[in-house]
Amino acid sequence: MEKALQRWFPVFVLPTLAAFIIGFIWPFCQGLYLSFCRFTTINNASWVGIDNYINSFSDASFGDSFWFTVAFAVVSTVLINVLAFAVALALTRSIRGTNVFRTVFFMPNLIGGIVLGYIWQILINCLLSIVGQPLLNLNTPAGYWGMIILMCWQQVGYMMIIYVAGLQNVPPELVEAAQIDGATSWQTLLWVKLPMVMPSITICLFLTITNSFKLFDQNLSLTGGEPAHATEMLALNI
Amino acid sequence: MASVTLKNIKKIYPHSGKQKKGEKKTNLQVTDKGVVAVQEFSLNIADREFIVLIGPSGCGKSTTLRMIAGLEEISEGELYIDGQLVNKVPPKDRDIAMVFQSYALYPDKNVYDNLAFSLRLKKMPKEEIDRKVREAAEILDITQYLDRKPKALSGGQRQRVAIGRAIVRNPKVFLMDEPLSNLDAKLRNQMRAEIIKLRQRIDTTFVYVTHDQTEAMTLGDRLVIMRDGFIQQIGTPQEAFEHPANRFVAGFIGSPQMNFFDAELIQQKNGDYAVVLGDATIVLSSGKQARLSTKDVQPQSVILGVRPENIALCEDGGNDGNQARICGTVDVCERMGSAAHLHVKAGGYDVVIVVQTMDKNGPTQADFAMGQSIAFTFSGSVAHVFSKETEKNLEF
Question: What was the ipTM of the complex prediction?
Fold first, then answer.
């Protein structure tokens, strides 16, 4: 049986391999190819070499957007993950209503990015009415922190679910063993729980970083890159 | 090293939201406050004593151990370790160590770090940590695995590491929650012997939870036999085997299980107690007579218990005129190597009889055929009489 499997393994691997190539490898290669083309649709593309890259890197606004995106990615990644982990910790304790809280925290993910941006613009503008100025008239830091708040609000719930799953995977005996070994709650978190949820941390870090670099909808609807393209992120700039 | 005293300990698990009041899934008592997992638990564990808590699943033995560890809150009663009331003392300040059924090793740390974890938390000097870890590793013969992660160890090696983690702390009380139940039979026997040796080396107070009676009988100085949250009997393994306090203990301790019959306890003309089982009358031994007389036990319907090892086959197939002879037919013969377990149908009962099939000169007994007629008997010194109402041993 095993020999037959070894002999015919290409046949068994083929369906999955085909799906992987069609779903992942081909679009990735096509995307890479299109970055060297001038195009309106996928079929209507003409090869221009590295012109697109030259244009981008010689454009000062691209550099500004890049560094703005990096700054946004660093702060939002840290904030989203710290907050999501803290909420997950709170919601994995045996307290009443954890399921309701988990659902409510997750709900912002069900709202589209564009709508979310406008909702938050209205909310922030309501608050800013105290100083008599709308968000778009304010300086870059205001737009930057507006984006950070919006993204935290949207993504904390999503990452929380991943952290909850990770924390629930920590065997309770391990925590009890640490208690008996003399660990405080903080030491148990640091030396027992955190190493056990490292896979969740890796997934969440990866997700938040990629989300930050390809952010478009929320950026467009909340600040639209204003004032003067100063809050324009990479995706919007391109 | 320390004594442990439990006074009237009670553990109530409050009703969860999903569980309806009055809903009963086990035989545990359910009150308005919740499910009573342990009650009326009083026990004095002497310094350096090895106590085994034994009972079927859900009897409250692990809950009791966890209350001693501080992992479960005590609902009522008092717990003293070394004379100090510790009801509200957190686990880390009780100076206890615990070995879990699932080993509970930190998977990201190697064996050395697992052993050293508690000592590092105490901020012990590095040299001392190293000395203690290597000492424990040597006792348990795991020195060669110190740099391995738990996943690279076998079940037995993991259990040694779990025990080592407890040893390095040199605790006042050593708690073990079914530490061998995840091991296969051969390894379990080996580890049991290791624990006996370990006990001699580290000489501290042990509280050991198991549902395996072989472990209980071989390891414990005293057994605490539990059922449905109540203590059934406290005593040495031999006491529990020879003088079970009630029918439950009689059936739980001993393998194969004790045989039970509905019988009549009578007093003969000379005042001697005897049990009547079908046509057979067995006069009880003088010791039993004395105990029953002292308690002024009246003739009554009883449950008669006889251990399979205490039943003897009648030599001539049951035609020797013995008054205490009981006839039956062989139903099944289980050959165990040096002995055979005969399942005999007799008077509507399935009676198990242990027959030795080997002595120092070799095999002694021929095979038993299914349906073969046999007769058996037992003496009055091995008959246990239990009340039909309370199921308590009428001798005690």
Answer: 0.81
